[in-house]
């Protein structure tokens, strides 16, 4: 088997339990949560917090794995290369393998599962995320009618007709070329450098089973109306019978309907916001099926303030979004956080620093992440994981080639995450990566707006904008990508924002009557911390440079200077800002935290004071003061 440089490295700090289970495979650095991971502890929580059932089985843990050639492979392996820890990708240290998968290779997994099929019940097999093309077998039978494609969205298979009582053999075959026609590549790269990172292949989120009644709730959507005081739950029902859906909301009452249930809340109900993340828990029953979920009463929109400036409004009040670019990468798990506690730490740090928003950058997290954002109270601007970052010309044929899959992944992502109130804006395109020309760009933005009218749509983020972007003077970032006049009055402009990227920045597009001015990326102040670097210090870099921010004092002074300028822009009408970034990632050292999350480079109290001052200035300007 071909061994990667990652697989050859032996790093200090790897837990004894992991060393015993798999042998010495490690990343250049580990997090405190990664050091504690064992096969018995790896991602044990319920993976779908918005539709919880009791009868389920977690399939994470040690599986057998093998790597074979894509060509001349006669069938499934009869011999296995060793053990892999699911749900960590094969390239990660926490998988216990630490090996790069090549485009000309299949990655195979197998394990035994226990099943007990009964009349009137179905057995469902769920995959939280598998990158990229997946075929699934029970015994000899393939249970995927069509191999699933898409690296970042979950999928479910009904395996009832393929399993027998007792022990069954589950086998998964994955092919991941990383490049080519794939849309959901994100920041994965064959040769990591700059802002592109180690690629991820195979299973990287939880695998689990559940037993459900024939007549059951398949999914639901939630639409809240804070002006009417209602939450409308629309249930998609399988094996439909004669029963109505009954919804019991804790502390509110019981409601029912034939697939559509309208919950009327009493006067004085609580709104959801980052400052007060109130959630209403409910239990839904349909025949024998019982699921638990929750909703938050919140409203997001663009609206003119007292001075006639278009701004974001949350729950009918002007709201300045201040957040970070959040990559969601980990040195030990890569795309997979080492644990729920680890990913929660990142968000708690942002809250402690006074941020009220994060931009989840070209990655879809496990659903537990969004439930955590709901519970802790932080807004999410959610990116669609993009295709090749080199595809930054709308004239390239491959941008059109990726469009179909990108559109499908956009729909799946919105459907899967629809019921999480923390998500307030979708972002289909980042810096022109795999962005097609004017017609298809508008089609994607318009589809996003129509498919989910409960959220805003971010205009192409830092890239070509044919619907009201402004031509900028020479020297501005992305000057050649952001230009155009507004469409004629009455003609659709699909996006709700004009989104500028500028390092260091900050700055903004002028306010206009149709779209909110948004600073989608800026800052990127580099600050390497010795002993907490992915590679040697000379390979470290920051978007906004590193010369005057090498010291802690210089970093804080420069950061506060940027925030003072953001405050001035907020007074002028800037709707929100996204600082790059939450953590260092591989050779990038522009994070608030080091990549291993062991050093916070700033005093959170100092940052919180500065951020709260910006919000106050925006609120004062919006009220006409």
Low-confidence stretches: 1-24
Structural category is alpha+beta
Strand portion = 25-35%
**How many helical stretches?**
9
Q: Measure the end-to-end span.
A: 68 Å
Corresponding CATH architecture of the largest domain: Alpha-Beta Barrel
Give the CATH superfamily of the largest domain: Glycosidases
Report the average pLDDT across residues: 91
Number of strands: 33
**What's the CATH topology label of the largest domain?**
TIM Barrel
Textual characterization of the structure:
It is built from nine helices and 33 strands. The chain has 625 residues and is an alpha+beta fold. It folds into three domains: 5-212, Sandwich (Jelly Rolls); 216-298, Immunoglobulins (Immunoglobulin-like, Sandwich); 301-622, TIM Barrel. Strands 30-29-28-27-26-33-32-31 form an eight-stranded parallel sheet. Strand 32 (516-523), helix 8 and strand 33 form a beta-alpha-beta unit. Helix 3 runs parallel beside helix 4 (367-376), helix 6 runs parallel beside helix 7 and helix 8 (552-572) runs parallel beside helix 9 (604-622). The N and C termini lie far apart (68 Å).
Question: What descriptive keywords fit this protein?
Answer:
625 residues; alpha+beta; Jelly Rolls; Immunoglobulin-like; TIM Barrel; 3 domains; eight-stranded parallel β-sheet; seven-stranded antiparallel β-sheet
């Amino acid at each position: 088997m071909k061994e990667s440089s990652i697989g050859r490295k032996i790093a200090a700090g790897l837990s004894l339990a992991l060393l015993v289970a798999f042998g010495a495979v490690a990343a250049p650095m580990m997090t405190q949560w990664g050091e504690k991971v064992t096969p018995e502890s790896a991602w044990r929580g319920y993976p779908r917090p918005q539709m919880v059932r009791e009868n389920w089985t977690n399939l994470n843990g040690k599986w057998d794995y093998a790597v074979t050639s894509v060509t001349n492979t006669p069938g499934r392996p009869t011999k296995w290369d060793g053990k892999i820890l699911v749900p960590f990708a094969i390239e990660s240290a926490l998988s216990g393998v630490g090996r790069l998968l090549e485009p000309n290779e299949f990655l195979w997994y197998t394990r035994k599962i226990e099943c007990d099929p009964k009349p009137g019940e179905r057995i469902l097999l769920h995959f939280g995320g598998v990158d990229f093309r997946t075929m699934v077998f029970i015994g000899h039978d393939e249970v995927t009618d069509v191999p699933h494609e898409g690296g970042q969205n979950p999928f479910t298979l009904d395996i009832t007709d393929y399993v027998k009582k007792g022990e069954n053999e589950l086998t998964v075959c994955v092919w991941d070329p990383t490049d080519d026609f794939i849309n959901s590549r994100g920041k994965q790269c064959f040769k990591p450098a700059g802002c592109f990172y180690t690629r991820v292949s195979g299973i990287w989120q939880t695998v689990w089973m559940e037993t459900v009644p024939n007549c059951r709730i398949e999914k639901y959507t939630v639409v809240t109306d804070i002006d009417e005081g209602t939450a409308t739950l629309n249930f998609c029902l399988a094996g439909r019978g004669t029963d109505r859906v009954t919804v019991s909301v804790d502390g509110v009452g019981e409601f029912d309907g034939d697939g559509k249930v309208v919950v009327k809340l009493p006067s004085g109900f609580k709104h959801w916001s980052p400052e007060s993340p109130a959630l209403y828990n409910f239990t839904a029953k349909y025949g024998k099926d019982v699921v638990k979920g929750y909703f938050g009463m919140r409203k997001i929109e663009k609206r003119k303030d007292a001075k006639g400036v278009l701004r974001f409004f949350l729950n009918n009040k002007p709201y300045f979004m201040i957040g970070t670019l959040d990559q969601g990468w980990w040195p030990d798990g890569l795309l997979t956080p080492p644990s729920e506690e680890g990913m929660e730490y990142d968000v708690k740090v942002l809250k402690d620093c006074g941020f009220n928003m994060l931009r989840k950058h070209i990655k879809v997290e496990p659903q537990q992440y969004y439930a955590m954002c709901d519970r802790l109270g932080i807004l999410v601007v959610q990116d669609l994981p993009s295709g090749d970052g080199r595809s930054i010309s709308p004239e390239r044929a491959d941008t059109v080639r990726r469009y179909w899959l990108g559109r499908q992944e956009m729909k799946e992502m919105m459907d899967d995450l629809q019921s999480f109130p923390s998500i307030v804006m979708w972002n289909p395109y980042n810096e022109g990566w795999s962005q097609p020309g004017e017609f298809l760009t508008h089609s994607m933005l318009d589809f996003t707006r129509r498919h989910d009218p409960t959220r805003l749509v971010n205009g192409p983020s830092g890239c070509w904008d044919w619907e009201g972007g402004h031509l900028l003077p020479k020297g501005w970032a992305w000057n050649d990508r952001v230009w155009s006049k507004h469409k004629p009055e009455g003609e659709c402009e699909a996006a709700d924002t004009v989104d500028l990227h500028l390092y260091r920045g900050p700055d903004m597009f002028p306010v206009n009557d149709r779209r909110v001015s948004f600073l989608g990326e800026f800052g990127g102040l580099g600050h390497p911390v010795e002993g907490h670097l992915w590679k040697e210090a000379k390979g470290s870099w920051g978007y906004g440079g590193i010369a005057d921010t090498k010291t802690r004092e210089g970093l804080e002074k420069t950061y506060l200077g940027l925030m003072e300028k953001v405050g001035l822009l907020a007074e002028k009408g800037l709707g929100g800002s996204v600082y790059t970034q939450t953590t260092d990632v591989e050779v990038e050292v522009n994070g608030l935290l080091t990549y291993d999350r062991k050093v916070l480079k700033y005093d959170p109290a100092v940052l919180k004071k500065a951020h709260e001052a910006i919000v106050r200035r925006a609120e004062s300007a919006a009220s006409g003061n």
